[in-house]
């Protein structure tokens, strides 16, 4: 396939969604309102169900129910022993081996579904992502572990976008997670259509500014990798690119990084704008950098002028629309 033919086929890169694959996300079942908690209740998260549910196709998982613990059930916790153990303190029953065996099988099953992300339940000794208490002799000794199932998920699937419900209350963490989910979905769409060097070039080109907002060094490495096409086997090229791409987006985009990208984009318009228009955008970028304005303000000004002056390169950059505007992820200062 020629680059021109691939460009026509993938002309939708300027839009946020690949359109042909559902956004499939694993989730702790209790967050969807399923009554699977130890007390027979749930922990429904309205942001997950009512907001993300408009876009995501959820794959619910409750490790404790799926290893046969039932509900209601005795509480379990992480304890020091021969390694970290998952134990019910009221009965002394040890669920460690059952949970680890389940985790390996379940993660393999989920990998065949090729998820775009995963949302875990905070504070859970099985599903918590971080800061889970570990006990020694009935006293908490530290609080720096992941839940037993979550630790295996994070270890076995290191490039999968993973967050927990509590951390999604942080606007920057929320945006980073959702941006990674949509980016992974676009990659899956590309794989489904069939990877080729021309398509990889187009994919990388459309994500350039987005990558720079996260990790400048990784952006440069990926550019060198794409430029090496033809000197290494295609299979190696595509696998290396995917891993590096997913890892690059794990680095948080900051106001300073976004500002650098916005200034870079403005450079493409410097000859088209009059001094007053340019000053207006520069002021908006600086006010955003100082956290006086949300990111959406300078982005809107730039988007308007990109359309007005038909700047083709910038019009094709997913940085300006990496996810649906209805999620309002860039509307916070």
Q: Can you give a write-up of this model?
A:
- By secondary structure, the chain is an alpha/beta fold.
- Among the domains are: 23-171, no CATH class; 255-327, no CATH class.
- 47% of the residues lie in helices and 12% in strands.
- The strands form 2 sheets. The chain has a 4-stranded parallel beta sheet. A 4-stranded mixed beta sheet has the order 4-3-6-7, with no helix packed on it.
- It starts with a helix and ends in an 18-residue tail after the last helix.
- Mean pLDDT is 92; it is low at 1-18.
- This is DUF1722 domain-containing protein.
- Residues 208-324 form the DUF1722 domain.
Please provide the ordered H/E string of secondary-structure elements: HEHEHEEHEEEHEHHHHHHHHH
Quaternary structure annotation: single chain
Number of E-type strands: 8
Spatial sequence of strands, sheet with the most strands:
2-1-5-8
Strand content: 5-15%
The overall pLDDT average reads: 92
Summed up:
The protein has 333 residues and is α/β, with parallel strands linked by helices. It has helices at 3-9, 46-51, 63-66, 96-113, 148-156, 171-193, 197-206, 208-214, 216-227, 234-248, 255-267, 275-289, 296-308, 312-315; strands at 23-28, 56-61, 77-81, 83-87, 117-120, 132-136, 139-145, 162-164. It has a 4-stranded parallel beta sheet.
Topology readout:
Elements: H1 3-9, E1 23-28, H2 46-51, E2 56-61, H3 63-66, E3 77-81, E4 83-87, H4 96-113, E5 117-120, E6 132-136, E7 139-145, H5 148-156, E8 162-164, H6 171-193, H7 197-206, H8 208-214, H9 216-227, H10 234-248, H11 255-267, H12 275-289, H13 296-308, H14 312-315
Parallel strand pairs: 1-2, 1-5, 3-6, 5-8
Antiparallel strand pairs: 3-4, 6-7
Helix pairs in contact: 4-5, 8-9, 8-11, 9-10, 11-12, 12-13
